[in-house]
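Run Phage late control gene D through structure prediction, thanks.
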Amino acid sequence: MANVLALTTVYASRSQAMRAAQAKWDKLQRGVAEFSITLALGRADLFPKTPVRVSGFKRVIDEQSWLISKVTHNLNNSGFTTGLELEVKHL
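Sure, done. The structure for Phage late control gene D is below.
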């Protein structure tokens, strides 16, 4: 039996879903390490492909060079936050 990964996002079209599935497959094939974080104070200046460094985590995480792969900004009654999905930057 093959391993199955279900994408939880609902896409507007079949072609968008296929592109998302292909991008996820390509990432899995690269064996990319991933890291997600939500910033309590939103950062509208952050966008995908921006290199970042993190600190205050385990040494193995802090020492990596990370690249933003996805940014989600959220504005609600609680304020403005930014969610980041990061992957290891390959040189």
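The chain is about 25% helix and 30% strand.
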